[in-house]
Fold these 3 entries.
Entry 1:
Amino acid sequence: MDKRSVNKARSLYYGFMSKFFVFTSREDRFDGILEALEVMMQNPLDENSLEALKEIKEFIDAGGYTLLAQEYDDIFHNPEKKVVRNTASYYDEGVESGNKRVAVKNFLGKTRIRRNEKEFKENEDSVGFLVTFMHEIIELVMAGDASYDTLQHCLFVEIINEFFDDFVANIYEHPKANAYKSLAVVLNAFLEFERLYFDVAKPALKEKVTLKAVTHKGISTAEAKRRAENKAKKAQGSKK
């Protein structure tokens, strides 16, 4: 594979995904999507993703960006429904801010890219931040900074590749997913393309984790119970 020749397309895909997954209230959040769709449909990754791209365009043409924003909220932020978790830490440990967030922050610290806290409200290991981060790294690689080649490889292999399959499956299966269901098909095809690019295999299936209950002191409920029992035993011993 001639990696230099496909980096422009990779940057386009990551930038396209950024429009769909970055949490923001900006009115121009979806600007550029239709233009990107036209380019991507001219050179699709496969037949399934081509049909999915057409479905996304039809959805936007019919309902505009308002319905797209509503669907995003229903899938990721509606407290009345089961939401799709979107951080690497959750899929790795069952917590929203864990080792994967630390790892991404360490990667970020090795670059001249910095998180704009006004634009990015979610953690550094959220899908929105990750696809935007990768887009920026690819742009730097195309600008001639070869030092970012290793970084993009590590970011994909150690973070993105490890949990995106589960994330995509959760979107596809969400009852409110329509345009995002089609997007999941596109993302699934793009994941396979990226694995070829980085010469890495799809990760083995692993047991799904659940969100760990945490007390206000930052320890799990089970640990809090264990400490309370030990404290009670010590108190009983003192009385004796």
Entry 2:
Amino acid sequence: MPLPRLSREAVRRIAIDVAVLTAFGLIVALLGPWGSVGLSWPVRLSYWLACMIGGGLIGIFLDETLGRRIAPTWRRVLAITVLMTPPVTVYVLMTAWLIQGEFWGWRALLELSWQVATLCLPIMVLRALVWRAPRVETRTIVEPPLPEAEAAFRRRLSARRRQARLIAIEADDHYLKVHTDAGEELLTLRLRDALADLSRAHGYQVHRSWWVAADAIREVRWRRGSGEVRLEGDLIAPLSRTYAPVLREAGWLG
């Protein structure tokens, strides 16, 4: 079976991850913790590079496969550190046997696991900082076509609110509640039809019954598998797990 081809972005991320792990391994080799300073430099360097790169890649694999389901970032870092510690501990034990020619015995696993966790945590923290998306708002990039993009939907509003600032749309039974800075208005319209009207507008669907304008967002909070979006006018919209990745890509979630 042919191996799947990696995209250029995936290769770039792997190269950066390996470079960070290599730098971390060099620093630890220079420090020589837990008695390794007594080893010869070639053995010490080989041992710590193998431990940092190999163990780090185990953690990165767990982070990319399981960590995506965990939010926020720092809870994810702690969870992956706990998950990676047992397999990395076994890996370090085998690495010491192969490189140093010394098998410490399986009884050493418990003590060794604390040393491994001590190094796994800063590695995952450093990786989280490297790949953490900056919180940036990109409305200015798409601002010129906004009036035209919202025009079809605005024609459905009353004259009083047609020129008002659009904040959010909320599905309410058989109606849509349109939130603007000139007050609320009810429309007899399905949410999917409103989303079709606003397909080119700068906003996000954050819940099965909510759409919010991007420039109305003030804060996004995520906790225990659900979240909320705080908007202009003290309005709060729910954020579901299904639509959270959209805001994460926009930089609102770490």
Entry 3:
Amino acid sequence: MKIWGQAAVVTGAASGIGRAVALLFAKKGARVIVVDLNLPGAQETVAEIKAQGGTATAVMTDVTKQEDIAALFDTAIQTYGTVDILVNNAGIMDNMAAAGDVTDEMWERVLAVNTTSVMRTTRQVLPVFLAQGSGVIVNIASIGGLHGSIAGAAYTASKHAVIGFTKNTAFHYARDGIRCNAIAPGQVMETNITTTMTNLNERGAIICGIGMALSPRAGQPEEIAAAALFLASEDSRFVNGHVLVVDGGWTAYM
């Protein structure tokens, strides 16, 4: 997997999938910008990378704020001279509420983190990619972006939007040497995203929970990171606009 020496920005990298991606990329020789609102957690990721002989820098970023995203990429370029890979991993869950119960506050919060931030980071990095004639974006979506039974209305809409945005970006910039793909994980253990599930909607939680028993097993963050490494590397150079489902076979039933 050829990413040696490349500069990679990974959002939501203080824990879970983001941390696993940052660690694996650094192990494979990438120089990593570890991005998270949780700065101590991001610094822990950096410390682990450096302990293993890798190169990384922590940047505290609120991905819902355009000024933070602009500052993030300024820092990345100042630190490593460029950006070659962007992994949009930052995300939150909703409270499982269906359309009739979803609040404006929940809707706007979930869309801001899960969808608008992906557009903004992509928009911010594209001039760099266009100038150098290359670049890779990997968006962490969800099987909730392919089906309607995994979460509430807000999360489901946000991840469907990420998948559509991924395909649109891939097609628009394919001739410029830029690739954009997405990963749709199933249930993954040891992530921080479940802590964002507050005030669960009782009806929605029961309905969404029905399908959980169909999942053969929960995955580990490292298993999603391995897929991200493939999509970020030259080994997938002809893969563009694709949604790679990594769910242990859960959606094979659906």
